[in-house]
Amino acid sequence: MTGERLVTAVAAGDATTVGRLLDDGLAPDTPGPDGSTALYRAAVHGDTDLARILLAAGADPGLESGAEHEGLPLCAAACWGYAGTVTALLDAGADPDQGEDPTGNTMTALHWAIAGGYPAIVETLLGRGANPDIRDSTGNTALCRAVTYGAATIVRALLDAGADPGLPDGQGRRPADLAESRAACDIEAEALAQAAEHAPPGARITLREETEGEDTLLVAEVHDATGALRSESRVGTGQAEILTLLRARTGS
Q: What pTM was computed for the model?
């Protein structure tokens, strides 16, 4: 019995079919034809109930999905901001420091949560033992990533968890150096420029503010010629507050 039906049922949110397949003896980690696993699909869709069903049936929370551009369930859930699914995976024994490499740059769930700007997930991962000083494969620490992103809440959480404010990034820049440089940037112009790099011809880019906890974020939305939303990227505006936090911790 192949995993195609299981993976398809999970992607469709069909708990009845998932339960029937598992009851019939299908192993929960049986991959689909492309190598994708059901648990990864549940994680990337934020379907916590199905994730728990699969985990209770014995799905391995540390098994990397084999389809192209897929990876670890925990990283997927953290990347998209699905706090309940992150908790379910950690409850089942997922290693918060396990890295994945779907894009040529090994990252952990903590790196993905920082990149997405999800302070609650960052705090959950840190509370469950994630290493606050962990580096991605380019040498960037979690703290350096958070400083670059610009969310003061995340920087504070990392510092409170013991992140070393003196550790440099892969290019030798300390977090305070990064913060000082970022504080002098035109964040709005930068957000628009970054969105434009990946925008299709004829696209329209808009910028709006939103809040995530105590942080203010700029969201750049890319709309195609029909007006449909193609992508969005977010960046925090807390560079000045971050610089103050780092100077207080380093005494500089």
A: 0.90
